[in-house]
Amino acid sequence: MTAPRSVSRTASSSVTASSIVSSLLTVQTSGAGFTDLTAEVAKFAREVHAREGAVTLFIRHTSASLTIQENADPTVLIDLATALNRLAPENAGWRHDTEGPDDMPAHIKTMLTATSLHIPVLQGALALGTWQAIYLVEHRARPHRREIVLQFIGMTG
After folding, report:
1. Is the dihedral of CA 124, 28, 114, 20 positive or negative?
2. Beta strands of the chain (E only): which ranges?
3. In sequence order, what DSSP letters do the residues of 94-139 get, joined into one string?
């Protein structure tokens, strides 16, 4: 193991969390795939006048998930979908198939990814990296109406 060549850190900032603001985001998916939510989450942060704190996203479903991934090269999303399909293929002899052959694989894919995200807000903006985007990942083949709870906790102004 090697030591890093250079490490730096900004001065710590401290605020008192004076606000908790929540909203429900409803997204109609078009079937399996990724839906970029970054603009909507940033809009929420602007509308609540978020200054310092964090935005939390929580998806209220067990067959769709949330992730932060690269937004520059669309082949990343294709490769991620391919990997999830290899890990949880439809025709693997699953017992739970109440809603079709993609039902149990969708639950497994959700378990392997995330149902909530936490994104810091610094100086009024989401602290995402240059190539990062927030995605809803629909794991079901047919379109669904998905609900995501957005919550900002921190200082507004």
Report:
1. positive
2. 19-28, 33-36, 50-59, 64-70, 116-122, 125-126, 132-138, 145-156
3. -S--TT-TTHHHHHHHHHHSBSEEEEEEETTEE---TTEEEEEEE-
β-pair type (145-156, 19-28): antiparallel
Give the three-class secondary structure for 92.
coil
Residue located via tokens 């998916």: 29
Please state whether the predicted TM-score (pTM) of the whole model is above 0.85.
Answer: yes
The Cα–Cα gap between 43 and 47 comes to 6
Give the number of other Cβ atoms within 10 Å of residue 51's Cβ.
19
Picking from 89, 120, 122, the residue whose alpha carbon sits closest to that of residue 105 is: 89
CA distances from 3 to 6, 7, 14, 43, 101 (A): 9, 10, 30, 40, 48
pLDDT, one tens digit per residue, over 122-133 is 999 999 999 999
Tokens in use for 131?
Answer: 């190539």
